[in-house]
Amino acid sequence: MLSRAPVDWRNGDGSQPGPLHWPVSVNLARRALREALEALEPRAWLPEHPDLEDARAGMAWFNGLAPTERRHWLEVADSAVPADAWEAYKARAAV
What DSSP character marks residue 7? Predict the structure, then answer.
């Protein structure tokens, strides 16, 4: 990745790129990665789960389970997707 670093990550100006300036390039790479991940995060749940609060509650529920409980609810949902386990849990709780 750093071999394709933009000119502003390097010593020198835009017309004369120099060697990488490590402290600057590492910080800029971290920021670029963080921004990319933040841009992707909402898309993971929103298309299937328009209710963001419900999606967050499902993530908190699943993350709070012990591994055996996770396995149980994934088996109940007959899926490997935590969101499906959350839906199965809610369906059982409603009964």
Answer: G
The pLDDT value given to residue 51: 78
**Which of these, 57, 53, 8, lies nearest to 29 by C-alpha position?**
8
Look at residues 7, 3, 24, 5 and name the one whose alpha carbon lies nearest to residue 15. Answer: 7
- For residues 28 and 36, the answer to whether their CB atoms sit within 8 Å is no
φ, ψ of residue 10 to 5 degrees: the values are -110, 160
**77-82 contacts at long range (C-beta below 8 A, 24 or more positions apart):** 82/58
- Show the low-confidence residues of the chain (pLDDT under 50): 14, 46
Render the burial of 63-84: b for 16+ CB within 10 Å, e for the rest: eebeeeeeeebbeebeeeebbb
Give the angle subtended at the CA of 51 by the CAs of 37 and 43, to the nearest 5°: 20
Q: How many residues does the chain have?
A: 95
pLDDT at 66: 93
